[in-house]
């Protein structure tokens, strides 16, 4: 496969040039322009690799099935031992020293799945259906990868009926999901309940774990080749996490999704193409959520009851559509220092070093320990770099923190039984689709309104995250076609 770090470096180099051209001014416009150009790159990558998509999926499956019997002995490692080993770069997880984690990092070996599951395999939670017939990707069955799906398909027309009887607010789509691009929408951010622009949430959104010092662990944008490294760590440490998966990755790496699910982790919807939802029409939002839901159901046999909007970009219209489709929104916590975003995605983009991202994470832990509730943090399993940061550093830091943190999946921390995380097995409706338009409130568990401001100290986050999400999709699209 084409080394992902090489692609990351390429994208990072492009970004550096663009920033230099912008005279180092990190303004929204500059980032927006970069994002637009990268969108073109995504389209090109998608079009050049679309014919290879099924081959990619097939190759991935073959590689995965060829990995049976490759199970390695679980390391005995305590957290401390794991950290020490990781720093040397020779530990069980083969994580480089923190100082070596950056966009120029050479790519390590692609992990192979230690365990694969055949159709008919039985998940362990109550009432779970068995794993369906083996998923074979056929491009005729799915929208183009990493692009907003068309809205004139029979499937989308059918899914649109799910909105019938629901009060979907008549809110004009934003320009591009960014605060700075849309002053008119920004001025109405509170009425719109626009998280991106002020941290506004609804009472139905999940934004934290209730119990103090509890971290609801989650990873976004996979499944991807390096997710397996993360799965091994989580298994070795008996931890569960929530994976917010992108539909385009699900159909590319079905066996990795099955491995996540069968290991007892939660699977949640993170859209088909990973574009900002507030900028889309109702039909496009339905298409993004519907196709991802369908992809997960086809591979696993179950349909999630939760979703996470890319970039956290949600407003009352997106919220109402999500809830009407049986998907309850989950965002990351806004705490005393701002949104709990580790900035791990900035490292493959060349914007931050691994050392900087880990320092961000340590300050999040410090802020989290002052809160009365638990918390949820944004991390990713799309890139080797972000997986290495989690496996080598952030998870260990939380496990060895004083005071200690309890690490759980988001459903676990909310005491939601696994069966209620999926529609086919639910005995309780956790979505509450008719209670979605309740009053909007600020997403600030610290009680500080400034902490929730997307335009304040964290203003850079918005355009940058939009860019990197697109860049990530570009890389994903490229390597999806290269495996
Ligand atoms: Zn994402």
Describe the structure.
The chain has 483 residues and is mainly alpha-helical. The protein has a single domain, classed as Glycoside hydrolase/deacetylase (TIM Barrel, Alpha-Beta Barrel), CATH 3.20.20.370. 38% of the residues lie in helices and 7% in strands. α13 packs parallel to α14. It is globular, with a radius of gyration of 21 Å. 55% of the residues are buried. The N terminus and C terminus are likely disordered. It catalyses: [(1->4)-N-acetyl-beta-D-glucosaminyl](n) + n H2O = chitosan + n acetate. It is found in: Cell membrane; Secreted, Cell wall.
Q: How many alpha or pi helices?
A: 16
Whole-angstrom Rg: 21 Å
Going by CATH, the homologous superfamily would be Glycoside hydrolase/deacetylase
Helix content: 25-40%
Subcellular location: Cell membrane; Secreted, Cell wall
EC number: 3.5.1.41
Keywords: Carbohydrate metabolism, Cell membrane, Cell wall, Cell wall biogenesis/degradation, Chitin degradation, Cobalt, Glycoprotein, GPI-anchor, Hydrolase, Lipoprotein, Membrane, Metal-binding, Polysaccharide degradation, Secreted, Signal
Protein name: chitin deacetylase
Q: What descriptive keywords fit this protein?
A:
483 residues; mainly alpha; TIM Barrel; 3-stranded parallel beta sheet; 12 strands; disordered N terminus; binds zinc ion; cell wall biogenesis/degradation; cell wall; metal ion binding; signal
């Amino acid at each position: 496969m084409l080394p992902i770090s090489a692609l990351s470096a390429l994208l990072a180099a492009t970004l550096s040039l663009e920033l230099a051209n912008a005279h180092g001014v990190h303004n929204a416009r500059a980032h927006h322009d970069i994002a637009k150009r990268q969108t073109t790159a995504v389209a090109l990558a998608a079009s050049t690799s679309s014919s290879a998509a099924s081959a990619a999926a097939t190759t991935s499956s073959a590689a995965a099935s060829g990995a049976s019997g490759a199970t390695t002995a679980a390391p005995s490692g305590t957290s401390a031992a794991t950290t020490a080993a990781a720093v040397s770069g020779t530990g069980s997880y083969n994580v480089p020293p923190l100082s070596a984690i950056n966009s120029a990092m050479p790519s390590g070996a692609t992990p192979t799945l230690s365990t694969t599951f055949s159709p008919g395999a039985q998940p362990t939670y109550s009432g779970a259906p068995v794993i369906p017939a083996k998923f074979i990707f056929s491009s005729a069955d799915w929208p183009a990868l990493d692009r907003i799906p068309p809205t004139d398909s029979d499937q989308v027309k059918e899914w649109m009926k799910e909105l019938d009887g629901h009060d979907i607010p008549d809110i004009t789509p934003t320009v591009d999901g960014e605060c700075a691009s849309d002053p008119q929408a920004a001025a109405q951010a509170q009425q719109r309940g626009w998280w991106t622009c002020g941290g506004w949430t609804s009472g139905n959104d999940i934004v934290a774990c209730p119990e103090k010092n509890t971290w609801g662990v989650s990873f976004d944008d996979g499944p991807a080749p390096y997710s397996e490294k993360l799965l091994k760590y989580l298994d070795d440490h008996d931890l569960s996490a929530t994976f917010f998966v992108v539909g385009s990755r699900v159909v590319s790496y079905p066996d990795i999704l099955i491995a996540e699910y069968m290991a007892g982790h939660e699977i949640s919807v993170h859209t088909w193409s990973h574009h900002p939802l507030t900028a889309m029409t109702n039909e496009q939002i339905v298409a993004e959520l519907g196709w991802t839901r369908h992809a997960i159901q086809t591979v696993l046999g179950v349909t999630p009851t939760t979703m996470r909007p890319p970039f956290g970009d949600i407003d009352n219209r997106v919220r109402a559509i999500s809830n009407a489709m049986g998907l309850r929104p989950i965002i990351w916590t806004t705490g005393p220092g701002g949104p709990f975003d580790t900035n791990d995605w900035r490292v493959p983009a060349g914007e931050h070093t691994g050392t900087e991202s880990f320092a961000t994470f340590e300050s999040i832990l410090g802020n989290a320990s002052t809160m009365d509730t638990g918390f949820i943090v944004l991390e990713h399993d799309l890139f080797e770099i972000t997986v290495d940061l989690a496996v080598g550093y952030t998870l260990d830091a939380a496990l060895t923190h004083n005071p200690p943190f309890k690490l759980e999946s988001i459903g676990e921390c909310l005491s939601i039984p696994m069966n209620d995380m999926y529609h086919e097995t639910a005995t309780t409706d956790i979505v509450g689709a008719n209670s979605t338009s309740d009053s909007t409130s600020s997403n600030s568990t610290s009680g500080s309104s400034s902490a929730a401001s997307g335009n304040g100290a964290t203003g850079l986050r918005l355009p940058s995250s939009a860019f990197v999400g697109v860049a990530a999709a570009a890389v994903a699209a490229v390597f999806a076609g290269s495996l």
